[in-house]
Description:
By secondary structure, this protein is mainly beta.
Amino acid sequence: MMLKLRMVFIRGALCALVASLASISHAGTIIKLNLGGVGPDIQMGANGVLSTVDQTPGPSPTGDQLTNIDFTDFLNFIPDVNSNTASFSLSGLQADPTGAQLAFGLVIQSFHGGIFSLYDPSDNLLLRGPVITAALAGVTAPPGTGSLFTTTLGNITAGSLQGFIKPGTISISMNLGTVNGGNGFSVVQGPGGLVLQPFQADASALISGEAVPEPASLALVLAAAIGGGVSRRRVR
């Protein structure tokens, strides 16, 4: 009975988390990222700052995480990047001072601030924008999988894909696995409530948004610019 109650709570909490952040009702998945498949991919330090792990030290590539890029929906005309030579960064997200919530082995932590950036294999900026709100939900026990991280983003501020995406419709969701080596998240009691402890995790990401119609000629130019030297792959 307790196990069933716990599963109902977890599902309900995750649904509530997604619903609270999914103000973009009609946005579809337009980009899929695997973040290189070499973990850990994302981390939070003792200062409560969440970011991608920098696996690309040095000036190039600019992004923290090497990744494939699968373009879908209205960006389907752009050739996919199948070679883990694009890069992605998520940086500067700060845990909210209100602390974490914990029930039935599920922890929920809100974040604010931060920036995300996506670069093509030639280190050209595809997308950049600020994070408005973000939230993390996951278990506090092994195997540390099935966690969800979702962001609501501000308008795209830069990048060659900016003109294709309707302002105010973009968001990122991440599936997290192998949290803290498979042990799951942990919290401790602090002066003002529960405090989420530092963690690292593997991740994959989906970027969603709505289309802005563009002239066919511009679409062809962008497809040629991004697609040079990369092959097409369909995800089924």
